[in-house]
Structures are given as C-alpha cells and as structure tokens.
Specification:
about 500 residues; alpha/beta; binds adenosine monophosphate; 4-stranded antiparallel sheet; Rossmann fold; binds zinc ion; 4-stranded parallel sheet; 17 strands
Length: about 500
C-alpha cells in the first residue's frame, strides 16, 4: 500500500495530507522549459525537483501519471529564430533535443507524457472556444482575452487581490482589453511567426493556455498535484487555474508545490540577468551526477546559492556513497547470524528514510540518514580488516543494507549504476575544481606500481616517500582490504 505523504500545499500555505483522487495513483503535472537556448543550472533545479517528486512517489508505492511539457511556441523562441534566420519550430525542436540530452545526463527518469504546444493545438483551440462560449473570454480583432473579473476565485493561489492588481496597472497597455488584468489566450498571426488556423483567424496561443489544455488532455479535468518554479505562481499558475476551472467547471489541482530559486550572488540565476552557468558546460567539467547531487542537497522549498562550497560538498558526498557501495559489492555472504542490534538499526534506517521522503519530500533529510547508515557499517564492518581479508556479512544484514542502497537509488537517483565509472568521474571533477596542475593518470598509476614493488621488497621508507610525494600533488591513496590500491584527488 502507498505510504501517506505530507505535502506543503501552496493553495493553503501549509502542510497537509496528500490524498489523491484515486488511492495509490497520482495525476501530476509540472511546467517544463521553453526551448530557445541551452538551459541553465537554475532551470535544472526545477527539472530535478520534478524528477525527485516523480521518483519519491514511485518509491513510496504510488503509480504516477506524470506530464512535463515543452513550450515550443513562444515569443522568445520566435525572436531568437528570427535573429538567426531559421524556422522557429525547427529551432525549438533542436533545443528540445539538447534539453533531452541534459535531462539524460542529470539521471532523470522519463515522464509519462512530454507534450509540445505545436502538437496540442486542437485541444488548445477547443478550450478557448469553450471559454468564449461560457462568456469567460472575448474576441477583439482576432485576439482572444480571458476576462479575469468573471472568475471570482482569481488570486486564490498567489493570494493577490484583483483590486490590488488593477490598482497597480495605471497604464492601460492594451486598449482592446476590457480589464487591465485580462490576459491573452490567442494572438493573431504576424509576419514571420508560426501560425495555426482557428475560428478567430490564423494565430497562435498565449502562454498560459497550453498547460491547462495539456493537463486536461493527458490527466483529466482535476489533477492531484501541480508543480513549477516559484516564479510561475503568478501570473502563470493563477491563470492556469482561471482557465481550467472556468472551462471544466471543477477544481483544477488539489495541490500546488513550487521549488525555490537557485541564486547566484544573491540574485535569481536567469538569462535576463546574464548570470548563468549552462547545464551543458557544468556537466562537461564536473559530470551530471555532481549537478544532480548539488540540486538534491537542499530542500525544494529553500533558496539555494550556487557556490564552490556546494559543489565541493556534493563531490565529497558522491565519493563517500560510491566508495561505500564499492566495498559493499565486494562483501561476501556468510552463514553466521547478524549482530541483531546492527540489523535492527539498518531496518530502522530504511523506515526513517521513508518517513523523511514522505514528509514534504525531504530528500536532504533522507540523505543524512543514509550517511548515518554508511558511517555505522563503515565503522563496524569495513574499517576493521587487514590486507586481503574478506568482509563477511550475514545474508539478512546484507539484504537489509542492499534494500537501503536500492531505496536511495530509486527514490533519489543519487546512487549510480556504474560505481567505478562514477568514482573515476569524481576524481576528474576534483581535479577540475582544485585547478592545480596535477599529475596525469599514467604518472599516478606508475608511482602506485613503484610503491607496490617497494612494499613487496619491504622498502617501507621508499613506499612512504612515494605516498608523500603523491600527497603533495593532491593525490590520496587508499589501501583496500583486498590488497588493491585506490586513489583520489584531495
Ligand atoms: P523559463 O524557461 O525561464 O520559463 O524557466 C523554466 C523553469 O525553470 C520554470 O519552472 C522556472 O521556474 C525555472 N527556473 C528558472 N530560473 C530558475 C532559478 N534560478 N532557480 C530555480 N528555478 C528556475
Ligand atoms: Zn504551466
């Protein structure tokens, strides 16, 4: 049976039990990226948070129908394509592919549906038609507007009052609007822009309507959870609610969750401020595992700062996890019974991790419990052996540890499939971060071989000298219980 989850619902600004309409099944929508350029690590935060929710639901026993859209028809895309002299849909299609490459390097699991605006035009037009028919929207010279005063619940998510919004808009920007808060559902076609036929003439949709139409198409009229970055709460999500609730005449989403910003020097990382690090350039230097770990190490409702320290900390944690997994994989199963208190402790670690995840998706909380288990097992079992000695664990203890590792792998994506490859990447990430002129891998391996020979000859002085020389160059050696030597950058 699915575990009960407590979620901070922004509709009520407090934590409450997450009760899906159908027990054990979640209808989940997350606003995806606008694809006009390479995404930055701030965008990656929204993507990774959506993925963490998706994974946590599954790991806690829910079946999930998860929709994440691509905005492939938009002012920014058209503007960029026109600057480059290329077709706007071809341009957005190229950046959807680039985005998929980034998502893959971030270890994201696929959403159930990933609709594009250009492929949802019939549903969008149908929904706008129904809003006009219900007198919630009106047409002016080929342009369609949603009439905000016609929806009495407007502002229920952002807690903004319609009167205040109108008060703030002294300048009437668009003479065609009946009310300054009304927003566009359909824009008439302009030269050099993509357009589609509609009952109101050739044109293209406004931004907000796509999510209402896509959620209805793939999930139905009422969904269980809607997610996006905190900047989307107003006006985007408020407008989605207005459109969907007027068109469908029922509640749009039971729960609303928003991830906080990733900041750079106390400002939101954003293209318009020019303070961006792209996902692609970061991944090329440090690997997607490091970016995923950085973004998972802070609770989704807390602001986070992009800094050398958070990157360093993530690298250290990934290394600790995978050194543990590497040693665990080498352990052997023995017949002798487990130390009962250790076994109980490991079983309780799993339960505590599930509790953390089901408490408003507290991934950092679950991770800290995972580290408690790693510390305990390292201390009791992995750190007490002499060279070449096997580590024997009883089958029930081994099973229980495996369950914990597998839970972290499935629910957070922070344990990676290929341990030695990740450890290798981490070495390189450390090297990049330290920026020191380090020894090449061949030079390091040659010195390790030389030290090994010195040890066979019982030339301890030489062995120590080589170890110190490597240390001076930032290379730390680890003599493993099975007699092999691993190394890493400091
Ligand atoms: P955009 O392409 O700017 O509409 O952003 C796509 C998604 O990324 C939205 O969910 C935004 O809320 C999110 N986003 C953009 N910048 C940041 C940031 N600095 N921190 C967290 N999320 C962000
Ligand atoms: Zn949306």
């Amino acid at each position: 049976m699915a575990k009960t989850i407590r979620l901070f619902n922004n509709l009520v600004r407090s934590k409450e039990n997450f009760i899906p309409q159908k027990a054990g099944e979640v209808l989940f929508y997350s606003c995806g990226p606008t694809t006009y350029d390479f995404l930055h690590v701030g965008n990656a935060r929204a993507l990774v948070v959506g993925d963490l929710f998706h994974r946590a639901f599954k790991a806690l026993g829910y079946k999930v129908n998860f929709v994440r859209n691509f905005t492939d028809v938009d002012d920014k895309i058209i503007e960029r394509a026109n600057e480059l002299g290329v077709d706007s849909l071809a341009h957005s299609s190229r950046f959807i592919d680039e985005c998929l490459t980034d998502m893959n390097s971030l270890g994201m699991i696929p959403a159930t549906h990933t609709p594009k605006v250009s492929e949802t035009m019939n549903e969008i037009i149908e929904m706008i038609g129904s809003l006009i028919q219900k007198d919630k929207a009106y047409v002016e010279e080929g342009e369609v507007f949603f009439h905000v005063p016609g929806f009495s619940d407007y502002g229920k998510l952002s807690k903004k009052k319609l009167e205040e919004l109108q008060h703030g808009k002294r300048v009437q920007v668009d003479q065609k609007k009946k009310n300054s808060s009304d927003f566009v559902l359909w824009k008439p076609a302009k030269e050099g822009e993509p357009s589609w036929d509609s009952p109101w003439g050739k044109g293209r949709p406004g931004w907000h309507i796509e999510c209402s139409a896509m959620a209805k198409k793939f999930l139905g009229k009422t969904i269980d959870l809607h997610h996006g970055g905190v900047d989307l709460m107003f006006p985007h999500h408020e407008n989605e609610i207005a459109q969907s609730e007027c068109a469908n005449e029922c509640e749009f989403s039971k729960h609303w969750c928003h991830n906080e910003f990733l900041n750079f020097g106390h400002e939101k990382m954003s293209k318009s401020l020019g303070n961006v690090v792209t996902i692609r350039s970061f991944v090329e230097s440090f690997g997607g595992e490091v970016l995923r770990h950085v973004l998972s190490s802070v609770h989704y409702r807390s602001k986070m700062d992009w800094s050398q320290e958070v990157i360093e900390k993530a690298i250290g944690e990934i290394e600790r996890i995978h050194l543990f997994v590497e040693t665990f994989t080498k352990t052997k199963q023995g017949d002798h019974p487990a130390n009962q208190s250790h076994l109980e402790e490991v079983v309780s670690f799993l339960k505590r991790m599930e509790d953390e995840l089901s408490d408003d998706f507290n991934v950092p909380g679950a991770l800290s419990i995972f580290f408690s288990m790693i510390r305990m097992i390292n201390r009791e079992y992995f750190g007490v052996l002499k060279d070449g000695e096997d580590i024997i664990l009883s089958s029930d203890l081994r099973q229980s540890i495996f369950k914990v590792v597998d839970f972290v792998k499935q629910s957070t994506g922070l344990v990676h499939e290929n341990t030695s490859e990740v450890l290798q990447k981490i070495k390189m990430a450390k090297k990049t971060l330290s920026g020191v002129e380090a020894l090449s891998e061949e030079e390091i391996e040659a010195l390790i071989e030389e030290r090994k020979n010195a040890r066979v000859d019982k030339d301890w002085a030489k062995s120590d000298m080589i170890r110190d020389r490597l240390k001076d160059k930032g290379v730390i050696l680890r003599d493993n219980p099975d007699g092999t030597v691993s190394w890493t950058f400091k």
